[in-house]
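=== RUN LOG ===
request id: a7f3
mode: sequence -> structure
chains: 1
length: 131
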Amino acid sequence: MRAKIDDMQEVYKERYATYRHLDQLRWQMLQLAVAAGSAVLAFADVVSETAAGWKWAVAGSIFLILGIAMLRIGAGIVSNAKVLREVGKEIGDVWIPQPSPYVQSVSFWIALAITVFGGLCLVTSIVKYFC
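=== RESULT ===
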């Protein structure tokens, strides 16, 4: 019985560390998207006149990729939180809150907005290229 509790505590520690890591990683993706995408949009025209058409494609790709990464990380956090809650109950930690539905979190809507903005930037680059 003691070995099972020790195993559960180890799983609990690992899941909690994973939860913290994924949460930090999710917000780092947001910071990276804002910094890199904004830098491309702000300074592409300064560097070269020919870069003006490509800046939307590059910025859109950055926003789109990092937005999708944020969505995937968020899904991983939700599934990890479910296991963390179950393991917590087994070792006596009943204070772990029930994870909210993923689409109700602020990070989901921020990631979705970044993804949509990335798509719009790509559409803008296509329009600018062909028009």
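=== NOTES ===
The two ends are 71 Å apart (CA to CA).
The first helix runs from residue 2 to 47.
=== END ===
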